[in-house]
Amino acid sequence: MRYRLTFIAGLALGYVLGTRAGRERYEKLKKSAREIAQNPAVRNTAESAAQQTRTYAGKAFHSVSEKVEGKVPDSVADRVRSLRERGGAAGNDDWGTSNT
Questions:
Q1: Is 98 left (phi over 0), alpha (psi -120 to 50) or beta?
Q2: Which tens digits make up the pLDDT trace of 67-82?
Q3: What is the dihedral of CA 62, 66, 72, 78, to 10 degrees?
């Protein structure tokens, strides 16, 4: 999905930069993009996808942690531990991002 959105954004950017339609067409595209981004359905879908991604990332993190536990050099384990302690504020997931 990310690659599809990147492709579409690149296509739109190429069109805007390559067109001779000028500022008027650019402003029209900009307005359309803003309206799409502010659409409640789009925002809800994006938030839902982000939450689902956080859930899967957390599960993957725990799965990998269990499998490599004891196989990681002490220096790496100490570094991870210090990063967790430093960024372990409430409301953050295992990746240090907020759950908003």
A1: beta
A2: 877 787 888 878 877 8
A3: 50
